[in-house]
Amino acid sequence: MMPIWTKSGEKHAVTLLKVQDCTVLRYVSKEESGGKTAKLLVGGKNVSPFSKPESAHEIFKEAGVPRKQKVTTFNVTDDAIIKPGTPLYAAHFRPGQFVDVTAKTIGKGFQGVVKRWGFKGQPASHGQTKTHRRPGAISTNKASKVYRGKKMPGKMGNIYRTSFGLKVWRINTKHDIIYVNGSVPGHTNCLVKVRDSKLPTYKDCNKNPPFPTFFADGDEELPEDLFDEEIFQFTDPSVTFA
Amino acid sequence: RVSSDGKPPKFQPPPKPVIIDRKTQKEESRFLSPEFIPPRGRTDPLKYYIERKDMIQRRKVFNIPEFYVGSVLAVTTANPYASDKSNRFVGICIQRGGKGLGATFVLRNVIEDQGVEICYELYSPRIQAIEVLKLEKRLDENLLYLRDALPEYSTFDVNMKPVPRMDHEEIPVNKVQVRMKPKPWSKRWERPKYNIKGIKFELPEHKMQAAQKWSQPWLEFDMLREYDTSKIEEKIWKELSEELGK
User: Fold this and answer.
1) How far is A240 from chain B (nearest CA, A)?
2) What are A35-86's pLDDT values in tens digits?
3) A119 in the same domain as A84
4) Which molecular-function annotations from GO does this UniProt entry contain (chain A) (predicted)?
């Protein structure tokens, strides 16, 4: 995470996400998948092929890419279908866009009710016998059962969670890095899924996105760094208020 | 001597004296700002490389001078609510923290009997000028104990003139031993964990010896805590001098 400053001098914290060897692996049509839209399977970081059996390598052999660590699905409209085997780059996103980022949260292991659900526990003194971080009562008398989904101790973390509506401040096309506002679930160097935001406020915020994606062998030549309009660039002199 | 032509020997002037100036021949002191050294961790080094590119870019446009904890600085920042739209603060640097673009330094001064500490970010675009009025080092890495010292050690004149300094002089170490206000202090500075050399402790002997109970003499032999930064510093210094020399 890094600080970033706007032209008016305000500081925002920014997370860096690196797009490492992402390729489209397979196209699944609407009828095949049984959903409302067609799906594209996309694979992430390259990983050694020797730790999985040959049967697991079929998808990657069809697309002609080395084995990827993570395969995710993206729901896609029919005009945005991409041929399997095309690499995806960070330039697919543009500064000023809003994204949702999904990742597995940091695993905390088996945790008690105070840390996992934020219960208040019991006082430290005034006669409490061996009861300081326990859940207390779990149901009422009338119910005569414990409801499903009762908050109790258990394994915490290591589940998929999404942060919605994060602004993209800057894109580095040379190293394929996306600078995303705020924090993102997961530990450092974990795998993360970045999608266009589904929030209704940001539905029309994408002005001219590269559609269906940014092709490296196309005619467009992008500069090494793409900045949002409000970012203070370090090539400018210090901020002064007139 | 036997002359070649019978004429007296030609006057040979004595060889010119070679002056070896030992002062300038001393090894150039290199100062690598502490925020460039990456902390120990599992982050990808690419992140530090990219952050360093941004820091170098900022340093090309705005001059961040060399300074240490204990030097007196004057910082002018942009302030939209001030009448002049800028704000100048003079103070002694008590602490330098943070790595990368978020590096900070805290300046302390006592203005009209009120101690004031301001934490500035080195790479913030609102800073318009950083001037080093007095460049010197102190015996400790951070001077947070000045909060519990007598106010005379933290007062600096707001209109102080910069102290002139030769380029080749070594950075002076101010070995002042600071006198403290009576206890209680904000932290127990006599304990060995802070390892403070710049305080003149006027506590009785038995209190100083009782404080040594909290010493952890095994820490200096702990090999897992060692972080050798010499090679990393060399690489970063080379990169910096290339980029800033352009």
Assistant:
1) 6
2) 889 999 999 899 999 998 989 899 999 999 999 999 999 998 888 888 999 9
3) no
4) structural constituent of ribosome
Same domain, A172 and A230: yes
Give the C-alpha separation, B122 to B59, whole Å: 10
3-state secondary structure of A51: helix
Burial of B92 from C-beta contacts in 10 A (0-12 / 13-18 / 19+): buried
Token pair listed for B203: 């506590």
Cβ within 8 Å, pair B61-A175: no
Is residue A124 assigned to a domain? yes
Asked whether the beta carbons of residue B79 and residue A241 sit closer than 8 angstroms, the reply is yes
Q: Give the ranges where chain A is alpha helix by DSSP (H).
A: 30-33, 58-63, 113-117
Instruction: Extract the tokens encoding B119.
Output: 């934490």
Provide the whole-model pTM: 0.86
CA nearest A87: which of A16, A15, A176?
A176
**A213 assigned to some structural domain:** no
What does the H/E/C string look like for chain B?
CCCCCCCCCCCCCCCCCCCCCHHHHCCCCCCCCHHHCCCCCCCCHHHHHHHHHHHHHHHHHCCCCCCCCCCEEEEEEECCCCCCCEEEEEEEEEEEECCHHHCEEEEEEEECCEEEEEEEECCCCCEEEEEEEECCEECCCCCHHHHHECHHHCCCCCCCCCCCCCCCCCCCEECCCECECCCCCCCCCCCCCCCCCCECCCCCHHHHHHHHHHCCHHHHHCHHHCCCCHHHHHHHHHHHHHHHHC
**If you measure CA to CA, which chain A residue comes closest to B81?**
A241
Same domain, A46 and A150: no
Residues of B in contact with A3 (CB under 8 A): 101-102, 121, 123
Q: Which residue of B has its CA nearest to A1?
A: B47
B45-174 in CATH: which number?
2.30.30.790
ipTM above 0.95, yes or no: no
**What are the tens digits of pLDDT across the range A96-142?**
999 999 999 999 999 999 999 999 999 999 988 899 999 999 999 99
Chain A residue with the nearest C-alpha to that of B79: A241
* CATH number for position A98: 2.40.30.10
